[in-house]
Specification:
The protein is α+β, with helices and mostly antiparallel strands. Among the domains are: 83-198, 2-Layer Sandwich (Alpha-Beta Plaits), CATH 3.30.70.580; 211-342, Alpha-Beta Plaits, CATH 3.30.70.660; 350-381. It is built from nine helices and eleven strands. Strands 1, 2, 3, 6, 7, 8, 9, 10 and 11 form a nine-stranded mixed sheet that branches. The chain has a two-stranded antiparallel ribbon with strand order 4-5. It starts with a helix and ends with a helix. Residues 233-342 form the Pseudouridine synthase I TruA alpha/beta domain.
Length: 415
Amino acid sequence: MTMPCGNGLDSESTVETELASLRNRVKELEAENAKLLLQVSSCQCQQMEVKHDVPVLDSGNLVRRSRRGRKRADKVIPTHLISKRFVALKIMYFGKRFYGFSAEAQMEPSIESEIFKALERTRLLVGDKKDSNYSRCGRTDRGVSSTGQVIALFLRSRLKTPSGDSEAQKINGRPEYDYVRVLNRALPDDIRVLGWSPAPLDFHARFSCSAREYKYFFWRQDLNLSAMDIAGKKFIGEHDFRNFCKMDVANVHCYTRRVTFFEVSPCQNSHEGDQLCTFTMRGSAFLWHQIRAMVAVLFMIGQGVESVDVIDTLLDTKKTPRKPQYLLASEIPLVLCTCEFENVNFICSSGAAESLRSHFKKESLTYQLESVIFQEALRNCLPIGNVKKRRRKQQYTFLYYLVLLSLRMKNDLRN
């Protein structure tokens, strides 16, 4: 009786041993298969770079080379065979002619749509926008500019294995693509890439941002800067800003935001004795039209139409549960200056940096020439004797509307 049992146990033990051996062999084969696939992918990527990347991504004449390479570009390379890396791009744009940053509103042109046109034209984009894991830091409105917007996405790379945190600019002894220079050759003059940085795979341009800084430029005229500075300091801290924004009930359920810095300061620029000044505001995040609403109320305080205490009244949502009606400040002087992140260091090649300086200097001189033309037209259109009368009339009209707005705000506050 014991012999069959012993043979049965030995048989079961043998089967288990063989199964374990087979499992280990399967794992070994899977590992070998993965290595072979990686080698094949690397070979395909190298062939693809020779056939496709050089004619397009060369920093020479992008348009001429891309036309010459159209016939060779007909053969589509599968996206899974293309090497790519996750990067953050620092973007500058002059927003006057754009319908905002986002392309989702389907109003053209937008900054985002122009950027993706350049990405597709240079073949840096792998797949489409959905495949790129794209994110943006701020969604600036129509007319708003930026000197430090940040986006993140996967771009074509010379890196053969996926990486999100490598800081090396050279891959296998070869320099990484000069993303700044390549993209700037394909972008319009009022959009520029200022730098790029390798980013970790869990990086998100919006949610990884620790602080955003905005500046709003304005002419001093007869504004009371001291009162405006005192009033602006009341914004610092954590407050419910529902009375200082455009309500977005569908997407926003909490209107509490933290402002960490506020300052009113003069700039170096002046014109005909009038000093250019700026509001500087920094916070973790801002609501839709929040900056422009804050500036609008500060302008009324600077004109003497409202007192400094109106800020406290509007921030107290129990006393003021409904937003009073008042006009927003103009969008043109508003600039998103910086977006701050931890462990993200933007880089730019010396050649690309020199091209940026030359471009910005040229654009600045162009805008100054346009300003001179408008000043010349002003001298020719308005007789000298009527200038003061016209200015006085404009000032009275401006003050009249401010008084009306103030009265409307007071009525709304009482109700």
